[in-house]
Design brief:
This protein has twelve helices and 13 strands. The protein has 379 residues and is α/β, with parallel strands linked by helices. It folds into two domains: 121 residues, Aspartate Aminotransferase, domain 1 (Alpha-Beta Complex); 250 residues, Type I PLP-dependent aspartate aminotransferase-like (Major domain) (Aspartate Aminotransferase, domain 2, 3-Layer(aba) Sandwich), CATH 3.40.640.10. The strands form three sheets. It has a seven-stranded mixed beta sheet, sandwiched between helices. A four-stranded antiparallel beta sheet has the order 9-10-13-12, with helices on one face. A two-stranded parallel sheet has the order 1-11. Strand 5, helix 6 and strand 6 form a beta-alpha-beta unit. Helix 1 runs antiparallel to helix 8, helix 8 packs across helix 9 and helix 9 packs parallel to helix 12. The radius of gyration is 21 Å and the shape is globular. It starts with a strand and ends with a helix. The model has no long low-confidence stretch (mean pLDDT 96). Bound molecules: pyridoxal-5'-phosphate (PLP).
Length: 379
């Protein structure tokens, strides 16, 4: 099997991740609650430290772990005080942003404004600025599109948000581990990440960063192993965001993945993936009847979308999987709005090829040769 669906979840996981996960389950449990005396290893703090390097934020204690990006986005969007505020998001957002925005009861009276993107999936900072008002409370941007791989100019958009006094929330689910993230430099008030994609962790891990300056009502209340006699949080400073038993094996595995990436260097991972992406773009562009989305020759994430004329994305993915053992993903990729801008609405989405640093040039060649055969047969 050639697995090219890493934007959904990476496979295979790094051997060090598998080993760390298995060892964490095989050995006596590390402190079930962070403050507990049993278990000497602070897996939570260690994972915070590792993640602070990936996210480019200094304040590691403001990184909290959840079951993933979806959980984190729900926690932020329901816990930030956005009463009466305009919320600006982009057309490249994932449903883990869009659905909370349109469904959370706390946000039912908020004005949600969507900034368009161009046919490559790029959002222009000036288009964000055009939608800003003195009453805008939050700007949300997906750093790297999970449909076209397009990378947004986060620093420029962060400056726009800051100029209007709005919070800046970056979704780095697709970029964490694949692209440099500079949360502090972008002026990000919050960052959301997932563990099971470019960081090679297991499904059900991820988290968020929230700046110390922001007030966030917790999404979950419960035991934390600290100050257990306190029933009511009286001030924002007392809030805790790690209630309940933590996914210690998951966080230990996540840290192993992050350490491996930091050791290799995120820039080196990016360069390797770019090489594969460029090769793929060139190969796809030469195939008759293939429409490639996204922009060639700009640095993108490890994602390439395409369609074959007269074949639906679902049929193409089916033939690739069942005829050639190549796993890709077809459809809207949980990002429904971007397709009207990149021209894939009518075809009901795209075929998405998404890579990890473990994919090889040989696998790209296999994919291209399979597609050459498929396109010949549909002509
Ligand atoms: C851009 C983006 N944001 C958020 C998510 C949701 O991530 P999780 O699986 O951790 O909930 C995804 C997952 O596909 C994504 O691509």
């Amino acid at each position: 099997m050639i697995y090219l669906n890493n934007a959904a979840t990476t496979y295979p996981k790094l051997p060090c991740v598998l080993e760390a996960h298995a060892a964490a389950l095989a050995n006596p449990p590390q402190g079930q609650f962070r403050g507990s005396s049993f278990g000497s290893y602070d897996f939570y703090g260690d994972c915070q430290t590792a993640m602070s390097c990936i996210l480019g934020v200094r304040d590691r204690e403001r990184i909290f772990f959840t079951s993933g990006a979806t959980h984190s986005l729900n926690a932020l969007l329901s816990g930030l005080d956005l009463r009466g505020k305009r919320i600006v998001a982009t057309a490249a957002e994932h449903n883990s942003v869009l659905r909370p925005l349109y469904n959370l009861s706390q946000l039912k009276d908020n004005e949600i404004v969507i900034v368009p993107c161009d046919r490559f999936g790029k959002v222009r900072p000036q288009d964000v600025e055009r939608r800003m008002t003195a009453n805008t409370g939050l700007v949300i941007v997906n750093h790297c599109s999970n449909v076209t791989g397009m990378v947004q100019d986060m620093e420029a958009i962060g400056q726009v948000a800051g100029k209007y006094g709005a919070l800046f929330l970056a979704d780095v689910s697709q970029s964490a581990g694949c692209l440099p993230i500079r949360g502090d430099q972008w002026g990000a008030d919050a960052l959301v990440f997932t563990g099971h994609k470019g960081l090679f962790g297991v499904q059900g891990t991820g988290g968020f960063y929230i700046s110390r300056k922001q007030s966030l009502r917790p999404f979950l209340y419960g035991g934390t192993g600290r100050d257990s006699s306190r029933l009511i949080y009286k001030t924002d400073a007392e809030y805790e965001y790690d209630a309940g038993t933590q996914n210690a094996p998951g966080l230990i595995a996540l840290k192993a993945g992050v350490d491996a990436i930091l050791k290799k260097g995120v820039e080196a991972v990016q360069a390797r993936e770019q090489e594969l992406v460029r090769f793929l773009y060139d190969g796809l562009s030469q195939l008759c009847g293939v429409m490639v989305y996204g922009q060639k020759d700009v640095n993108t994430g490890p994602v390439v979308s395409f369609n074959i004329q007269r074949l639906s994305p679902a049929d193409t993915a089916y033939i690739l999987q069942n005829g050639y053992g190549i796993v890709v993903r077809a459809g809207l990729h949980c990002a429904p709005l971007i397709h009207s801008f990149i021209g894939s609405r009518e075809s009901k989405g795209t075929v998405r090829v998404s890579l990890s640093a473990l994919n090889t040039m040989q696998e790209m060649e296999c994919l291209l040769s399979a597609l050459k055969e498929i396109t010949k047969n549909v002509r």
